[in-house]
Write a structure and sequence with these properties.
- The complex is a heterodimer of chains A (418) and B (122).
- Chain A is α+β, with helices and mostly antiparallel strands and 418 residues long.
- Chain A is built from ten helices and 13 strands.
- Chain A has helices at residues 19-27, 32-43, 62-68, 72-76, 89-101, 149-216, 225-255, 268-285, 304-320, 379-389; strands at residues 47-51, 57-60, 106-107, 114-117, 123-135, 138-147, 263-267, 289-292, 299-303, 327-334, 338-345, 394-399, 403-411.
- In chain A, strands 1, 2, 3, 4, 5 and 6 form a six-stranded antiparallel β-sheet that branches. In chain A, strands 8-10-11-13-12 form a five-stranded mixed β-sheet.
- In chain A, helix 8 (268-285) runs parallel beside helix 9 (304-320) and helix 9 runs antiparallel to helix 10 (379-389).
- Chain A is rod-shaped and about 140 Å long.
- In chain A, 23% of the residues are buried.
- Chain B has one domain: Response regulator (Rossmann fold).
- Chain B contains five helices and five strands.
- In chain B, strands 2-1-3-4-5 form a five-stranded parallel β-sheet, with helices on both faces.
- The longest helix of chain B has 13 residues, at 11-23.
- Chain B is globular, with a radius of gyration of 13 Å.
- Classes of the chains: A alpha+beta (418), B alpha/beta (122).
- At the A-B interface, helix 6 and helix 7 of A face helix 1 of B.
Chain lengths: 418, 122
């Protein structure tokens, strides 16, 4: 039987209460404190039930009526097992007995998804916390039952959104992976194409250059001057073709990010001497005064062959674009963390409007280079890339008619990626 | 007279190498593919082999493997003469066990130098 003293009938529900209870509740005047506690109980958004040791519901608040769908009268005629889903009912009384034997404040079924059964048989997700309540009649248990349907719904929606998001992410990742594979394949095909192109172009050049050299050596018979000159042209142009092939492969490698520097420590001055010696003949043929004015005598940490290539490209350009009797020289300057090298000439110079473009692929300064258009148009772009691979910069200062000064820097600590 | 075997599928390239080497005073033999090269080498081992890598059938690497697998031929100088001249090709060739590497197009001075490094003309 519900405890008459503690049965708080909601005002409108008084007539619905059991006759005995309502009678008694009316017979005992409510104190102010009791009224305050009753209001508190009724205002709670959670269902609050008090259950005796045999499971009978002794007390229920308004939220209990709303959550379970029973009137308070009905609730007082039920045991708490009637609010447990049918499938769980048998186990529940055992749990209740064990709680009574060691009562303490705790959440019920922690970690489990608890459900309650409403009057109409529907199930709702709930959270329940239990507290023992010792009264004169013995141990009772207060159960605070929270309807978490709304939270569960939100959780479910969040999960659905998360799952959808994950699915979309997985699809995008797959697309990205497929695209990466495509790019890798394209890169591989490009490399294979370059390698086979290189092989196919070199093979005929091999016999063209070889037989031409052989004839020019005159071991197989003497040549007249005209024949010698003609063979010289063939040889020169075949070598130019070879250089073009090499440079196209170089720039392709650089652009594919496949050109790797072979870095080591070496003496810069010796390296420059070797390049100057190689360029000496070209300069002498034009009576160009070639001078090494560098003062840098320390070792550098870089790719020796590529540094020679940079120096050779700049020096041969300088000689090529300087008229007979002019001057070409190299200067050095030590910077805080690097070395600065300038290759200077008294050549035709470069118009301001061309000074950026000369580092672009296949750009050749047209009208100003009368008769000297024999480069590949790749020398300066390659030189620039090689300088940049080393972590340096290159630029040109020039005035038409007065000469040019190509300056590049080289970090002493080596390329940045190393 | 020291004998050089040229393994090369292109006739004009064989003629070029033969002419240069004969001028140097070497005896030259030719093979057009890997199988023919192995037959000639087994018949009578030459003093030096100049071998192209792209060959019909067995390629240059396959032929070298056969040569190096034979204890009597293991130390025979075999130089690759190849148009494979991409970065890394030189290292790859030496790593495979070739004695030397000459890239095409070959400068005649370089060819003579390389051959004389392994042989002395008599």
């Amino acid at each position: 039987m519900p405890d008459p003293k503690l049965v708080f009938p909601k005002p409108a529900a008084i007539p619905e209460k059991g006759a005995n209870a309502s009678l008694e509740s009316k017979s005992i005047p409510e104190t102010i404190a009791e009224k305050r506690f009753r209001n508190l109980l009724e205002a709670a958004p959670d269902a609050i039930l008090e259950v005796d040791s045999s499971g009978r519901i002794m007390l229920a608040n308004e939220s209990a009526e709303k959550i379970f769908g029973y009137t308070r009268e009905e609730l007082y005629s039920l045991t708490v097992e009637d609010l447990v889903p049918a499938a769980m009912r048998s186990g529940h009384s055992r749990h209740r007995d064990s709680y009574v034997s060691s009562p303490q404040v705790r959440p019920m079924g922690s970690g489990l998804d608890l459900q309650a059964q409403r009057k109409d048989g529907s199930l709702i997700p709930v959270e329940i916390s239990l507290s023992p309540n010792r009264v004169d009649e013995g141990l009772r248990v207060i159960a605070v039952v929270r309807d978490i349907s709304a939270r569960k719904q939100i959780e479910q929606r969040l999960r659905a959104i998360q799952e959808q998001f994950n699915a979309e992410l997985a699809t995008k990742n797959e697309l990205l992976e497929a695209r990466n594979r495509d790019v890798e394949q394209a890169n591989r095909l490009k490399s294979e194409f370059l390698a086979s192109m290189s092989h196919e172009l070199r093979t005929p050049l091999h016999t063209i250059i070889g037989f031409t050299e052989l004839m020019a050596e005159e071991v197989e018979g003497t040549l007249n001057d005209k024949q010698k000159r003609f063979l010289g042209h063939v040889l020169q142009d075949s070598r130019h073709l070879l250089q073009l092939i090499n440079e196209i492969l170089d720039i392709s490698k650089i652009e594919a990010g496949k050109l790797e520097l072979n870095v080591g420590t070496f003496d810069f001055a010796t390296c420059l001497d070797e390049v100057m010696a190689g360029i000496h003949q070209q300069a002498a043929a034009k009576q160009i005064h070639l001078e090494n004015k560098t003062t840098f005598r320390d070792p550098v940490y870089a790719d020796r062959l590529r540094i020679k290539e940079i120096l050779y490209n700049l020096l041969s350009n300088a000689v090529k674009f300087t008229p007979n009797g002019g001057s070409v020289w190299v200067e050095s300057r030590t910077l805080d963390h690097g070395l600065e090298i300038s290759v200077c000439d008294t050549g035709m110079g470069i118009a301001e409007s061309d000074q950026e473009s000369i580092f672009d692929k296949f750009y050749q300064v047209g009208s100003t280079t009368k008769g000297t258009r024999e480069g590949t148009g790749l020398g300066l772009p390659i030189t620039k890339k090689l300088v940049e691979l080393h972590g340096g910069k290159i630029h040109v200062a020039s005035k038409p008619g007065q000469g040019s000064r190509f300056t590049f820097t080289l970090p002493l600590l080596g390329p940045p990626s190393l | 007279m020291q004998r050089i075997l040229i393994v090369e599928d292109k006739a004009n390239s064989r003629e070029l190498l033969r002419t240069v080497l004969e001028q140097q005073g070497y005896a030259v033999e030719e093979a057009q593919d890997g199988e023919q090269a192995l037959v000639k080498i087994r018949e009578r081992a030459p003093d030096l082999v100049l071998m192209d890598l792209h060959l019909p059938g067995l390629n240059g690497y396959d032929v070298l493997k056969e040569i190096r697998g034979n204890p009597q031929l293991a130390s025979m100088p075999v130089v690759a003469v190849t148009a494979n001249a991409m970065p890394g090709d030189h290292e790859r060739v030496l790593a495979a066990g070739f004695t030397g590497y000459i890239s095409k197009p070959v400068a005649l001075s370089m060819l003579r130098e390389e051959v004389n490094r392994w042989l002395r003309p008599k």
